[in-house]
Write a structure and sequence with these properties.
about 150 residues; alpha+beta; two-stranded antiparallel sheet; 2 helices; about 30% helix; elongated; disordered N terminus
């Protein structure tokens, strides 16, 4: 790929990285807001009924009851049909570029797949026709958003 072509692909990957991380953050923030609302309402007790018919009330933190219902974004995948075309690099040398394949075109097509997996330690991967081209780690769930200069 040319440096100009990879810059465009790199920009796309950066935008998708941020969208994936933002979706994960949104899920965690929404879950936290629901838990805080439950705590403020005082929903801190659970009524238990034993098989023998006896009842008793247990007090326990709401987060222990709702942790399993935490919505998460665990993966995302995008597949694009592309064509490989000859081009010139910024230095004038011959190179190759990936171009989105037009519908109904007869030129050979390839599948470029961008894939994100993991909610605790997310990773990204770039595939061309099933061959891994690139693999990278995204900031974990405790990392600060880019540009904030802070750890969360």
């Amino acid at each position: 790929m040319t440096s100009a072509g990879s810059a465009s692909l790199d920009s796309l990957l950066e935008v998708l990285d941020q969208a994936f991380l933002q979706a994960q953050r949104h899920c965690r923030e929404r879950h936290e807001a629901l838990l805080l609302a439950a705590l403020e309402r005082g929903d801190m007790q659970v009524r238990c009924v034993s098989p023998g018919g006896g009842e008793h009330v247990l007090s326990m933190p709401v987060w222990q009851l709702q942790a399993l219902r935490l919505p998460q974004v665990g993966g995302f995948s995008l597949a694009l049909e592309v064509q490989v075309e000859a081009c010139e690099t910024a230095g004038g040398d011959p190179g190759l570029a990936l171009v989105l394949a037009p519908r109904g075109g007869r030129a050979p097509r390839h599948v470029l797949k961008i894939e994100y997996t993991g909610s605790e330690s997310p990773r990204g991967a770039l595939w061309l026709d099933g061959v891994a081209l690139r693999d990278w780690a995204l900031p974990g769930r405790h990392a600060a958003p880019p540009g904030s200069g802070q750890a969360t």
